[in-house]
Amino acid sequence: MLSLLRSPEPTFRHLLIGDWLTIIFSAVITAGLFLTLWSHELASKIQIRVGDKIQATYDLNQQRDITVHGAIGDAVIHINQGKVRFSKSPCHNQYCVHQGWLTHSGQVAICLPNQISLELIGAKKPYDSLNY
Amino acid sequence: MQIQTNIDDHRIAKLAAFAIALHMIEAVVPSPLPGVKPGIANIVTLYVLLQYDFATAAWVSILRVFASSLLLGQFMSPAFALSLSGALLSLGMLWAAQHLPRRYFSAVSLSILAAFAHIAGQLIVVRLWLIPHASVAYLIPVFAVAALFFGFINGLITAKLLYSKTQSSAANQSVDNPP
User: Fold this and answer.
1) Angle at CA A33, nearest 5°, toward A28 and A39?
2) Does B77 have pLDDT greater than 50?
3) Fold of the A45-121 domain
4) What is the distance in angstroms between the Cα of B40 and the nearest Cα belonging to chain A?
5) Rg, C-alpha atoms of chain A
6) Do A30 and B144 touch (CB under 8 A)?
7) Mean pLDDT of A29-58
8) What does the alpha-carbon distance between residue B24 and residue B29 come to, in Å, rounded to a whole number?
9) Can you tell me the distance from the alpha carbon of A55 to that of B168, in angstroms, rounded to the nearest whole number?
10) Do B140 and A23 touch (CB under 8 A)?
11) By the 8 A CB rule, do B33 and B94 touch?
12) Is residue B173 part of a domain?
């Protein structure tokens, strides 16, 4: 067992052409499993919360700016045909703005200083990460 | 009462004891996610399959599952069911995969295939009995990555063991019969 650790150099020499094929095949299967089982559907609605109450729910199939009054000022939320982002926020770090576009149901953007959060909702709600 | 044993039985017992020891070592190692384990005892199964034959490997694997669960106090528990279903499916996969041409497929291929069969067997038990809910599907990619990684590592170790075995037997032969 120890000799295995002492001589690592010829390790990969044992791999034959079929082994590489097996590895590639398995890796493709694994990647496919991730894509099929971990992908969420596209969102259709956005829910805006201020503090602990739901402020409003909008359809994502439109193009508009929404101004929301938060705890420290006005934030602008931009909806653009199926995706949404914070485009302006009065907060110091601007984490919410830098998070960028949200597209899939279950995705969440939270602005803690301003106490505003966005949650995307699909046809069926997959998993409530905010309330859980 | 005395049971007649032959040399094959002794060999199976010796190899199974080695597999059980590896299983015990692994049982103490903590795992980041329940169910994700390196499965180092499978190195013995694979080594036996390639060094001897499928029947010996099957004996060693099944004996290891039963004896280890008895030692750990898990006999007939969910952990035992997971271990047994995984071992049975990976044995089935090895039975099919042993016919792959050895020129192109080494122990690494067999190990990866057996590891995938192992998690498949475990996930079937989890889905049908332990957690009968569709959300089990979320776990599959994680287990697949673990199977690929640990199957690869175990296969490499087996290939090296077999290689060093042929090297040492070749060295012994040259000592026995000097040119």
Assistant:
1) 125
2) yes
3) mini-chromosome maintenance (MCM) complex, domain 2 (2.60.320)
4) 12
5) 23
6) yes
7) 86
8) 9
9) 75
10) no
11) no
12) no
Q: What is the CATH number of the domain that holds B65?
A: 1.10.1760.20
A15 to B108: CB separation less than 8 angstroms, yes or no: yes
Of A14, A33, A38, the CB nearest to B108: A14
Domain enclosing residue B106, as ranges = 7-164
Q: A93-108: per-residue pLDDT in tens?
A: 898 899 889 888 777 8
- The ranges assigned to domains in chain A are 2-37, 45-121
Report the domain count for chain B: 1
> pLDDT tens digits for B31-42?
777 778 899 999
DSSP-assigned beta bridge partners for residue A116: A50, A111
Per-position DSSP letters for A82-105, written without gaps between them: TEEEEEE---SS-HHHHT--B-BT
Which one of A7, A16, A35 makes the best mutation probe of the B interface by having the most chain B beta carbons within 10 Å? A16
CA neighbor of B85 nearest in space, from B141, B27, B127: B127
* A34 near B CB under 8 A: yes
State whether A14 and B148 contact (CB < 8 Å): no
Cβ neighbour number for residue B151 with a 10 Å cutoff: 30
- pTM for this one? 0.69
Q: Which amino acid is at B28?
A: V
Say if the Cβ atoms of A19 and B108 lie within 8 Å: yes
- Closest residue in A to B156 (Cα) is A11
Partner residue facing A14 (CB), from B106, B116, B138: B106
Alpha carbon of B99: minimum distance to chain A alpha carbons (Å): 13
Q: What's the pLDDT score for residue B138?
A: 77
Say what the ipTM of the complex is.
Answer: 0.85
Instruction: Give the pLDDT mean for B135-160.
Output: 90
Residue B170 in domain: no
